[in-house]
Write a structure and sequence with these properties.
A hairpin with a 2-residue loop joins strand 6 and strand 7. It contains 9 helices and 7 strands, in the order αααβαβααββαβααββ. The two termini are 36 Å apart. It is elongated. The longest helix is centred in the first third of the chain and has 25 residues.
């Protein structure tokens, strides 16, 4: 269903480590033929092994250019309703919930400004790229696209049964995070779910990417749980996936 979907993440996110692994391996082979000493041979072998291992993590563990699995089945357990994707990007999290909740619909919201173009290119507009992915996945009849700021959502109160936001809110500073969570609470119906997924500074990200996925600065789980509770949410579940910290929160 999603074979023709293109999330348009930069090539280096999935394949960039090969640009390090292959030259390091070639130098190691050349050094072996020249009978180099053990120290430089160990150095280039270590670089090649790290880079190839990181490629496998980026390409097959995290895999930014594939639809992720829903991290918890407790999200929107009725399987039906209207979901807001806050900071939808090119649609990864929208497709995640559309595939796992076949009776739900999604409103995909993003600013579609210069930051969006910086992440996803200028070949087509953000709305066009999202629409193309929804068509390719066969979900055009269950989706709508809205330009807007997650810190000041252009929706009435209690408009949505659930919200998902993936790797977006952690681009913001503390004030922006609090504003976005207050707005999320406002537009959710009572007992509505919010599934928040964030970049985690875990083993996988440390090995594969180091500082490259820090966004504006990573925070620990306690920081995020404090933000959710202080802005009115109840935390139902939290957990981790490779390179991901997630929270399932609920409006009282």
């Amino acid at each position: 269903m999603t074979a023709n979907v293109d999330f348009h993440y930069p090539w280096w996110l999935s394949y960039g480590h090969l640009m390090i692994a292959i030259p390091a391996l070639l130098v190691w082979v050349w050094g072996r033929s020249r009978k180099w000493s053990k120290l430089p041979m160990f150095f280039f072998a270590a670089i090649a092994i790290w880079a190839f291992s990181s490629f496998l993590i980026a390409r097959f563990v995290f895999n930014a250019n594939a639809v992720p699995a829903l991290p918890t089945q407790a999200f929107l357990p009725t399987g039906t309703g209207k979901i807001l994707d806050m900071g939808a990007g090119t649609g990864r999290s929208s497709l995640m919930v559309l595939e796992s909740r076949p009776n739900a619909s999604v409103v995909a919201l993003d600013l579609f400004t210069e930051s969006y173009k910086h992440h996803f290119g200028t070949e087509m507009s953000g709305q066009e790229r999202l629409a193309a992915n929804f068509r390719a996945a066969g979900f055009e009849n269950r989706t709508a696209i809205q330009a807007g700021d997650m810190r000041q959502l252009p929706f009435d109160a209690a408009s949505f049964d659930a919200i998902v936001s993936s790797y977006a809110i952690d681009h913001l500073n503390r004030k922006g995070v609090d504003s976005s969570l207050r707005e999320a609470l406002r537009v959710l119906k009572p007992q509505g779910d919010m599934l928040l997924t964030l970049v985690a500074n875990d083993f996988w990200s440390s090995v594969a990417f180091g500082p490259l996925l820090l966004h504006g600065g990573l925070h620990k789980a306690d920081w995020w749980s404090d933000r959710l509770r202080e802005n009115g949410f109840q935390i139902v579940e939290q957990g981790t996936k490779p390179i991901t910290l997630y929270f399932l929160a609920r409006k009282p």
